[in-house]
Amino acid sequence: MIEPADLDAPDVMGLLPDAAVEEFLSQAVRSGHDLPPPVALRKASIMLPSAEARWHTKPLRDLLVEAMRRFDDDRVKADGWLAPRLHATVRMTRGEAADSRRWNFLAMIVAPDYVVWRHRGQDLVAAGRFCGPHYTQAFARLWWAAELFRNGADYRPVETACSVQDVLNTTMRLDVIDHRPTALAILEVLADLIRENRGRLGDHVNALSSSVNAAGSTLVYDALAEEGVGDIAVLQDWIAEAQEMPPAPWERLPYGPDDGAVKAGVVDALVPLFERLLAEAPIRQRPRHAASSGEI
């Protein structure tokens, strides 16, 4: 198996086209027995400006190595620790994060060892963990989980979201989750289920997510709980601070961009509705091993 010491990651991130991933993502790479060919992949990439510290790879590599050390006995738990720190380290706009080439570069050149470590099962790692949609790709899913579930600068809801894999695997696919009060209200209902020590949390999350999506749209939920407009200038300042920022802390949560938190009363307006939707939703019970572990 590939070890972190085997990697010679470049100092700066780049953009790697999907076609290059398809060409060089072999079974040996997906099984962790070989590294993707670095020279060929770098030739296929467009490098990002080295003058921008947010694209430097060392802070991210340090986080990934620490995550692998800290959670080697329970890899799923790495998501809740890493997602906010990845978001606070690789600072960018949603438009930049929507470019799949950025995530391809991380998965194939900077940290293929982490992809295999986090998502290996009994067989090969799914190709979508290297190059896939934002709710599947190994690093995109974490960055977007932090972006969609943070409340302004507060990353604590992200930890709740990542504590149940079905939130990342199912809820993040929904269009309505782009409406932050809806995302936070779903987590409020989930937090209550956790406090009640309710079993099969993943089954409940899937039922709630389906019902919320079927019952309304972003426009409907915004009429019930207005999201407000994020402060773009604050976000840009937070990104610019990356030039001189220290590494993300390991023992406490970092701070996200303070670009506008959702007011508590706004979320409260949705929670009773979502509780009723969950109470009326059919719960599809999966086999216990699937419901407890979720997809890795």
Features:
296 residues; mainly alpha; two-stranded antiparallel ribbon; 1% strand
Description:
The protein is mostly helical and 296 residues long. It is 53% helix and 1% strand. It is built from 17 helices and two strands. Helix 13 (201-215) packs across helix 16. It is globular and about 55 Å long.
> What is the oligomer described by this structure?
single chain
> What is the global morphology?
globular
Task: Assign a percent range to the helix content.
Answer: 40-55%
- What is the overall pLDDT average? 92
How many beta strands in the DSSP annotation?
2
Contiguous uncertain segments of 5+ residues:
none
Concise overview:
The protein is mostly helical and 296 residues long. Helix content is 53%, strand content 1%. The longest helix is centred in the last third of the chain and has 17 residues, at 264-280.
